[in-house]
Design a protein that fits this description.
Layout lengths: L6 E2 L5 H5 L5 E6 L4 H16 L5 E6 L4 H6 L7 E6 L2 E7 L4 H8 L1
Parallel strand pairs: 1-3, 2-3
Antiparallel strand pairs: 2-4, 4-5
């Protein structure tokens, strides 16, 4: 069970989170997306395992379509890892835990 809550990313907190010196993993998702729901437990495990080392959050593209468009998210799930405001890695589609973990260090 995750001890760190997965951050709900919104228009209001997005810039602050991605501009952090701590890596920030952003899961672009939607509630109607089956693969996105399947990715949920992996995102929760990453939040738990990387507590204090990385920020892990989810951004609902239905509620924040302009942020998805800004980063060219055309297919979900898409996971982008940011550090100091720069996208350092992007994953499109459902991936395994190890692929995300390797990027977070």
């Amino acid at each position: 069970m995750a001890t760190q809550t997965v951050i709900e990313i919104t228009d209001q907190n997005f810039d602050t989170l991605i501009n952090s010196s701590t890596p920030t993993l952003v899961d672009f998702w939607a509630p109607w997306c089956g693969p996105c729901r399947a990715l949920g437990p992996t995102i929760e495990k990453l939040a738990d395992d990387y507590e204090g080392k990385a920020q892990v959050g989810k951004l609902n593209i239905d509620e924040h379509p302009q942020l998805a468009a800004k980063f060219g998210v055309a297919s979900i799930p898409t996971v982008i890892v940011f550090k100091e405001g720069q996208a350092t890695k992007q994953f499109v589609g459902l991936r395994q835990y190890d692929e995300y973990a390797e990027t977070l260090g």
